[in-house]
Amino acid sequence: MGIAVRNVTKRFGDFVALDDVSVEIPSGDLTALLGPSGGGKTTLLRIMAGLEQPDEGVVEINGVDATKLPPQSRNVGFVFQHYAAFKHMTVAKNVAFGLSIRKRPRAQIKSRVTELLELVHLEHFADRYPNQLSGGQRQRMALARALAVEPEVLLLDEPFGALDAQVRKELRTWLRRLHDEVHVTTAFVTHDQEEAMDVADTIVVIAKGHIEQIGTPSDLYDRPTSDFVMNFLGPVTQLAGAPVRPHDLEIVLEPGEDAVAGTVARVVKLGFEVRVDVDTADGETWVQLTRADADRLALSAGAPVGVRAVRAPTTEVPADATVEPVLDAFGG
Amino acid sequence: MASATTAKTTAARLGLRAIAIFYVGIMLLFPVGLLFWRTFEHGIQPVWDQLTTPSAAHAFRVTVIVAFWAVLGNTIFGLVTAILLVRHEFPGKRVLNALVDLPFAVAPVVVGLSLILVYGPHTSVGSWFADHGIDVIFALPGMVIATMFVSLPFVVRELVPVLEEIGDDQEQAAWTLGASRRQTFLRVTLPSIRWALAYGVVLTLARSLGEYGAILVVSGNVIDHTQTAPLYVGAQYANFNPQGAYAVAFALAAIAIVAIIILNVLRPKERT
User: Least buried of A55, A78, A222, A285, by fewest C-beta within 10 Å?
Assistant: First the structure.
């Protein structure tokens, strides 16, 4: 149940946007499709909605083959990055659109619209036009419009991408709470790993038309199966040639057997955290400490120290793998 | 120093403004104003008399009929073409896009002559129509075709930038909400482009009312038969009845100006 995509391939001319991709969005879940720009995640979402046709493969919605169905008959709600508000209609008319297409009785439409506007906290804006709303309000209106027809699945394409940082954070918390209330199967596209980890039950990492890994946020963060996922989900450094998260390291003043010896190169205070660069025999590594830990150690440049992994290094990445920074990870 | 710069830019701005007003004045306001003044030189009654002679009234009737069909045809063609050009990919799209502008570039009299070459009484197309009881040249059908040709670009050129600006997000949102293509067009696309469409229609109408060269060739300019109002103006002026020419010319200009003013008053400040 939910949405199943099986062996989907999609090309635009010579460019392969999706290459034999299979993924399931479990019923009732909130799933993030995460990846760098141009990696195919929006194409995958649009194929689920029927806004693009796959060249090969099958899309099933709640067990029914929907591959050939037009978007009108898939019963999916779709929310666009730039809201796609009907500019010539009031907020109430926007939300009522799907119901009036379905020729529901006027009284029923009215009560449903009221109910939805309350759900998205826009009850006082029913008679406004979209250009009188802020970006966050428009996106909540778009969400209410998509939910009005009681879709089997809700698909959101970078829903917070056009909003400023503060509103973004508020809206994603709000989306999570909304989902806990409404429980509609939801997939949303994002290139922001923090947003994905904050909101989603499951994260699907997509890059270069392939699925890199599927799992819960903590699965992906702690047990990435590739360098790409490890780099994409959080900061990475090297200890004794193996990739490791800098906050999983600790510094000891008396090097023991389990610590790598080195010299402090630099101590940088970044507000609540402290970044310590250490030169070791295998090259430079950096350690993320809390301010309390850093104060206790009283480190300064030139001090001899030992660096030790607090938790087992992420096992599934080969120890000799080279870690390259993912430059376009946060690209627009 | 700063005030000197400010004074300089102010002077430059005033200079530019003066040039623009002078240009519009010399090219547009003065001649049209003079025409209006000449028209009403002897009061309103003579103007009314000139407008209501049987030949003038007939010329107006022909002009309205021709303009009506040309506007109708170009509104439908313009909508279809603009949507094709903006929303669809197809071979020959660039050629079509360039061809739409052709009527701006070709002299109307050339259009008239080419239509005679295609539909003239001694051509195969023309005689096919004649065999089916339809005269194209020296009759209304040819005049409508000629007018459609010269006024073809306006609706397309008004709609294309607006369609590009609104994008297809709204249309796709409507599809996912269950609206068919037809419902999406009527409820989402059309309301979004209505002012651009209205403007295109008014410009098409203005151009159609005023067409002279192409109509002159294909209509035969037969008084009380195929003579349109602009042709009537030309004929009356040549026949030493300048008051008749002024009156009808004034009426033609007034219709177009009033249409554009009405549209600008009705249209909301912000184009949606």
Answer: A55
